[in-house]
């Protein structure tokens, strides 16, 4: 105990710290930790739904990670001229971006899983495709595409979907069609597992003013 | 005490402007946050700025984590307690002598030991909760708790990693080792108390890192971090490497400290012939840690660079198998890092509870040391599926050989019990249960060392049952034996014998019903690493899960019993078991000074033919306060 008193009376700091502050901060940190660990998508969704009602103008950068999109929510207004600048940030994985509504499903060991969207957002939409680098393949489906610069490798089958190699990018420029409401986007590669693992997001399209 | 308090109040009133200190843990969290934000911003926005990159990149989160851990360590007290004194400033770190000393940097080996025990207990409860989630998921053949397989695999990984690196490797070494080794060898402190004070705070940092890792992305490799699978995982795998790095660094520092303590701080007369069994166990484990932890740390650093830069060390153009060799080169000694202290504990507890001399003590030590040596020669039995038949033979041979020195631990324990008037109380019960469980774990280990069996049951629940029998069955049960055996020493009180036995029998039955059935699940075709399985396995899995929940509740019950009796139990005598080892020859709980004066050892500690104490001058006098 002799150590607790400084012989020269030099007390720079009162070490008699308060239990209340300790337990309060500890509880708060644990609570934040649990919330982030278990509810981060849910919390982020609520925040974006609540605060992201202003429609995005011009270019929106959509980043693909393993296995998530950033942002997870986009708001557009019908009639605006917008660009999706899609970029695959993964070092290892191929990723696509499909936009649609409803699901086609297939039964599996993990239960029924979504294989793609039932309704393709891009049906009949004129879209200008530019800045295509390291695009593995592009399925146009019923989109009316025009190309600027190098033309990516086209494929067929399924919804409109650009599939990017690691580090790949593509820009999709279009006028938001008159299809208001809630839309989803997602990545269904690798036996649909990216979508299952949480690689999806939502688009709110507001009606024209 | 009272005069000191009034002095402190006096000091406070004189210097009215003196600020009350933030709780060190809060300060540590604050500095961790600041460290992370500053370093992360510097890396992602200044030094490694890339167009369109997000705020947190793989490189920035790695370096940000390093800064955060630095801030945490300095904040909890290493700045005043270790860094400033090292630079020549006077030591200003004052530890209040109440419960608060356990929540700040300290250099007292008993405080550090209990901090390690709390940390591993926290890890045990978190990882145990993860195990409960896994068992909940496996109650049905389909996904129903987790909404994707990756989330399940991440949970398995968190469970395994936290259990191995913060409980298995730490509880009996950093925890009971730090507390009891100086007491058992008649020293008043460890060799490097400041380093030891710092190393403990790496454990909560490491646990938190691993637990929070799924926020960066799912990782699917389990506690082994297998490449090249890990190289394809999202960024969560980074926090696996970093968290394990913190935890293994902590264990490495413990190994350095306790090795030096056992070699150089023994009381006069405590010759090599008289070193207590637990100290031998800790010495063997510490040597294993000193040899193998740097090896696995370097492997993980390579894998980390693989994921951050990225490099192709373990990808197709590198050498994927190299990672597995490197991992199991450490991974099998790790098993003995976990179980050797448990063997030593049996040999510590049985002579005391039987009041009978330890049988064939030197063979017990030879057993511990040979287990330690052979453990480095068996690693490839984890990889029989990747080897030629001709390569399997030596590893199969050495693996089966290791059961011989392990057998010594049994023979010494059995010989000690032979015709002893064994006091069948809670610590004895846990010791016997631990021996029973490890027998099953060990015998199935010999089976698994046989390539023919191994290739059949590889990656099935048979293997899961085997290693849970060795880790929970032997180590965790011995951990509880240690808790109850040293309970009067740690708390100065006595647990309740009835509830202690109820708790022991509870976890024993639940454990065997859970993991005993794992063997049969495995033989019936239940695979590891899958959240879904064929429906014919559902009834058995459902029922195994019920026993698993019972086991979880049993552990919680035991901890509640310990916590309750720690505060409310009847006051115990200084040496309630009439033990001869040195830790019992001082007050319970020990004062700030363990021994005053340092005792002189005049004979071994395991000779129960008479009542003579093995030390000369009586250290029973009250420690100065």
UniProtKB/TrEMBL annotation, chain A:
It comes from the Bacteria. The keyword Membrane applies. The chain crosses the membrane at residues 20-43. The keyword Transmembrane helix applies. It comes from Sulfoacidibacillus thermotolerans (Acidibacillus sulfuroxidans). This is Blue (type 1) copper domain-containing protein. Keywords: Membrane, Transmembrane, Transmembrane helix. InterPro entries: Cupredoxin (IPR008972).
């Amino acid at each position: 105990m002799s150590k607790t008193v400084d012989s020269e009376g030099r007390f720079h700091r009162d070490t008699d710290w308060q239990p209340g502050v300790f337990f309060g901060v500890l509880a708060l940190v644990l609570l934040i930790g649990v919330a982030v660990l278990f509810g981060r998508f849910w919390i982020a969704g609520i925040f974006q739904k609540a605060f992201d009602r202003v429609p995005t103008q011009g270019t929106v950068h959509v980043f693909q990670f393993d296995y998530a999109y950033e942002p997870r929510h986009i708001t557009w207004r019908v009639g605006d001229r917008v660009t999706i600048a899609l970029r695959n940030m993964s070092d290892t994985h191929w990723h696509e971006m499909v936009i649609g509504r409803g699901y086609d499903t297939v039964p599996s060991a993990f239960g029924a899983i979504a294989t793609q969207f039932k309704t393709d957002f891009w049906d009949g939409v004129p879209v200008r495709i530019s800045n295509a680098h390291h695009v593995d393949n592009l399925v146009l489906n019923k989109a009316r595409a025009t190309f600027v610069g190098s033309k990516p490798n086209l494929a067929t089958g399924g919804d409109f979907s650009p599939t990017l190699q690691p580090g790949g990018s593509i820009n999709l420029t279009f006028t938001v069609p008159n299809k208001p409401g809630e839309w989803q986007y997602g990545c269904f590669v690798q036996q649909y597992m990216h979508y299952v693992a949480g690689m999806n997001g939502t688009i709110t399209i507001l009606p024209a003013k | 005490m009272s005069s000191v308090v009034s002095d402190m109040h006096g000091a406070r009133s004189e210097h009215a402007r003196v600020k009350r200190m933030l709780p060190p843990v809060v300060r540590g969290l604050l500095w961790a946050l600041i460290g992370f934000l500053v370093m992360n911003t510097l890396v992602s926005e200044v030094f490694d700025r890339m167009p369109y990159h997000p705020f947190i990149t793989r490189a920035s989160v790695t370096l940000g984590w390093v800064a955060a851990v630095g801030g945490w360590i300095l904040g909890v007290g290493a700045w005043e307690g270790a860094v400033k004194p090292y630079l020549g400033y006077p030591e200003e770190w004052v530890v209040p002598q109440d419960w608060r000393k356990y929540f700040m940097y300290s250099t007292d080996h008993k405080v550090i030991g209990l901090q390690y025990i709390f940390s591993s207990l926290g890890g045990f409860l978190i990882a145990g909760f993860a195990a409960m989630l896994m068992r909940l998921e496996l109650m049905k053949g389909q996904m129903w708790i987790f909404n994707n397989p990756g989330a399940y695999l991440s949970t398995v990984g968190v469970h395994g990693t936290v259990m191995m690196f913060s409980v298995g490797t730490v509880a009996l070494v950093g925890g009971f080792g730090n507390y009891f080794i100086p007491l058992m060898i008649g020293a008043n402190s460890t060799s490097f108390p400041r380093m030891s004070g710092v190393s403990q705070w790496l454990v909560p940092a490491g646990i938190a890192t691993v637990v929070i890792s799924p926020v960066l992305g799912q990782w699917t490799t389990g506690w082994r971090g297998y490449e090249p699978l890990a190289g394809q995982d999202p960024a969560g795998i980074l926090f696996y490497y970093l968290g394990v790095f913190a935890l293994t660094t902590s264990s490495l520092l413990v190994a350095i400290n306790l090795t030096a303590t056992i070699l150089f701080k023994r009381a006069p007369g405590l010759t090599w012939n008289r070193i207590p069994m637990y100290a031998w166990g800790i010495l063997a484990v510490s040597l294993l840690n000193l040899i193998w932890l740097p090896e696995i740390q370097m492997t993980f650093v390579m894998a980390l660079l693989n994921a951050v830069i990225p490099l192709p060390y373990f990808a197709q153009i590198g050498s994927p198998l190299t990672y597995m060799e490197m991992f199991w080169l450490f991974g099998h000694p790790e098993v003995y890092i976990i179980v050797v202290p448990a063997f030593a504990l049996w040999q510590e507890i049985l002579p005391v509870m039987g009041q009978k001399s330890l049988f064939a003590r030197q063979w017990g030590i030879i057993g511990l040391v040979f287990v330690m040596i052979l453990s480095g020669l068996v690693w490839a039995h984890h990889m029989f599926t990747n080897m030629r038949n001709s390569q399997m033979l030596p590893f199969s041979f050495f693996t089966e050989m290791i059961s011989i020195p392990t057998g010594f631990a049994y023979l010494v324990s059995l010989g000690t019990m032979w015709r002893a008037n064994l006091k069948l109380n809670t610590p004895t019960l846990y010791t016997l249960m631990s021996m029973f469980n490890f027998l099953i774990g060990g015998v199935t280990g010999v089976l698994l060392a046989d390539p023919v069996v191994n290739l059949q049951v590889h990656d099935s629940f048979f293997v899961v049952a085997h290693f849970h029998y060795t880790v929970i069955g032997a180590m965790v049960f011995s951990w509880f034996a240690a808790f109850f055996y040293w309970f009067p020493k740690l708390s100065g009180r006595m647990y309740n014998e009835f509830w202690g036995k109820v708790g022991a029998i509870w976890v024993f039955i639940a454990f065997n019903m859970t993991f005993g059935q794992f063997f049969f699940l495995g033989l019936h075709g239940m695979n590891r690493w899958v959240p879904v399985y064929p429906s014919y396995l559902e009834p058995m899995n459902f029922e195994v899960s019920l026993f698993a929940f019972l086991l979880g509740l049993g552990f919680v019950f035991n901890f509640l019993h310990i916590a309750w009796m720690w505060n409310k139990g009847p006051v115990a005598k200084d040496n309630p078991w009439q033990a001869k080892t040195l830790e019992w020859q001082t007050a319970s709980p020990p004062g700030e000074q363990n021994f005053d004066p340092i005792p002189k050892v005049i004979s071994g500690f395991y000779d129960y033919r008479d009542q003579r104490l093995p030390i000369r001058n009586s250290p029973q006098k009250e420690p100065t306060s």
